[in-house]
Structure formats: structure tokens, C-alpha cells
């Protein structure tokens, strides 16, 4: 039996989570879902966006499924990543049929360092002699240990998934010390994988942003720092039809959390309009993490079939179906396996 922490969160997080659990319950896997609270509504209720009880719950389970958070997203998801030391954020960029994908055959992975960089939250105001705020400063931390760990994860992912190239992304021409260190460590780690025929290259982040638009098929695995990975992965989402189709995984040495990258979308919350695909694809990544690769492939094929047919899909996919109707359509496809 797998114990899974379930945190629906806010807005459409609740709806896409319900749709995903509906599909997971149809698989021949013994799950025990344990529910926790977090997000805007939780803060209004408990004066805490992320209660200690929820943190403890996640620590006692095999994996966590997270829906979405609103204004408190940084207080929830960033803290969970730090509390669990979920150092690797995986953002697949993959084209699916029947979507608004700019390119039809993209399939690469962005591996983002998750614990440091600009997102450590160390900011302060700069005041003048009279105490007036004249500016603000943020600290950016890049360490050798974290850089080595994330680069090694990227190369290991490439080796285990038959990927042929890893691209390191940085801005070492300007950020000479922080990104200079990241680039240096990237090539040190690359040497450890020279016997596996995995090519290595590096680009500046601004060049990478352009290449994602002009030649995205040249990428296989991208590894980069926290802020750059956040931005590039959203650009990647734009290439393949939007955030409603992009799952993600947060992986540590002992724990993992899986979430769609879209937000809580309060403008459509409660209307049954949300696309559940990203949440279901995140659950597929969870199945792979748990070693249930066969079931992951079955569910992935079911999603692919529904998207390919384009008959029972949500409005953002040019359909007229509700969140749960699309979930049921995917569930029905499982019966034909």
C-alpha cells in the first residue's frame, strides 16, 4: 500500500485533484490517500498557510500530490520544498496532440535547482538617513554542493532515460562568481558521465530563451538554477499549449511532491472549467517515482487517447466538456488496456 499525502489547496486545485483521484482510484494499485490543508483558505481558517500538521503528514507518506495555492503559494510550496529538501524540480516539456502546441514533436526535460538561488527569500529594504525606502536588495546564493547535486541529478536522469545531451544554463558572463561556479561544477560533473555517451554543452540564459523558440528540438535535458529554471519552464509551457498541460515533480533523497505548474485560477474556480491534464500528468510522474512504470504508461496512453480524439476535453483545448467529464473519459480509456 502506498500512503499518499493529498493537498488540494485553493481554487481549481480542488477540482483537478478530484479529477485525478478519480482516475487513480481506477488503477489496480492500493493507495491510501491522507488529506492535508494548505493555501489561502487554510490561512483564513487557521491563520497559517501551511500548518505544521500538514508538514508532518507529508513527511509520513510515500509521496505528495499538491493541487494549487493562491497568494500564499510562496509560503506553501517553497516552504514544503525546503522542509523536505526537494532539491530537484522536474519540468517536462512535451507536445501532445489536439492542443495548441507550437511544435508537434517536442520532448525535453528542464531540471531546476530548487533550494537556493534567488528564491531563498533573503530580501531587505535600503533606506536613506531619514528612514525612507530608497530601494531593495535580494541575496542570491549558489553553492558548490547544491550545484553538484542538481547537475549530477540531470546527468543521471539523462543516463536512465536514454537522453543524449545535457545543457547547462547560466549567466556566467555577468554573474561571474555565482553562475561562474555553477558552470564550473557543471563541467566537473559532466566528466563523470563521459563513458555514457552523453554530450554536454552550456548556454547563457538569454540565448537559451531564444533557442527555445528558434530551435527547441535541439534540447534533451536542461539543467539550471532556481530563477532561470522557473522562467524557462514557463516558456517551455508556452511551446506546448500552456500551463494546463505541464506537470512537475519535486524530488529529494527521501521524499517527493508532484504538482501542476498552473496556479489556483480563481476566475474559473468552482465552474468545472479547469483542465485536469497537468494534475493527472503530475500523478503519472508520481507513479514513475513509486516504481509503478507499467501503470504510469497505461494512464499516459489513456490521456494521450483522449487528447488525440479531442471529443471530451475542456474549453482551453477547444472542447466543451467539464473537468470531471474529461476525467471520466480518461478513466474509461483505462478499461480498454
Automatic annotation (TrEMBL):
<keyword id="KW-0520">NAD</keyword>
<dbReference type="InterPro" id="IPR019818">
    <property type="entry name" value="IsoCit/isopropylmalate_DH_CS"/>
</dbReference>
<dbReference type="GO" id="GO:0051287">
    <property type="term" value="F:NAD binding"/>
</dbReference>
<dbReference type="GO" id="GO:0047046">
    <property type="term" value="F:homoisocitrate dehydrogenase activity"/>
</dbReference>
<dbReference type="GO" id="GO:0006099">
    <property type="term" value="P:tricarboxylic acid cycle"/>
</dbReference>
<dbReference type="GO" id="GO:0000287">
    <property type="term" value="F:magnesium ion binding"/>
</dbReference>
<dbReference type="InterPro" id="IPR024084">
    <property type="entry name" value="IsoPropMal-DH-like_dom"/>
</dbReference>
<dbReference type="GO" id="GO:0003862">
    <property type="term" value="F:3-isopropylmalate dehydrogenase activity"/>
</dbReference>
<keyword id="KW-0460">Magnesium</keyword>
<dbReference type="InterPro" id="IPR011828">
    <property type="entry name" value="LEU3_arc"/>
</dbReference>
<keyword id="KW-0479">Metal-binding</keyword>
<dbReference type="Pfam" id="PF00180">
    <property type="entry name" value="Iso_dh"/>
</dbReference>
<comment type="similarity">
    <text>Belongs to the isocitrate and isopropylmalate dehydrogenases family.</text>
</comment>
<protein>
    <submittedName>
        <fullName>Homoisocitrate dehydrogenase</fullName>
        <ecNumber>1.1.1.87</ecNumber>
    </submittedName>
</protein>
<dbReference type="GO" id="GO:0009098">
    <property type="term" value="P:L-leucine biosynthetic process"/>
</dbReference>
<dbReference type="GO" id="GO:0004449">
    <property type="term" value="F:isocitrate dehydrogenase (NAD+) activity"/>
</dbReference>
<feature type="domain" description="Isopropylmalate dehydrogenase-like">
    <location>
        <begin position="3"/>
        <end position="330"/>
    </location>
</feature>
<dbReference type="GO" id="GO:0006102">
    <property type="term" value="P:isocitrate metabolic process"/>
</dbReference>
<keyword id="KW-0560">Oxidoreductase</keyword>
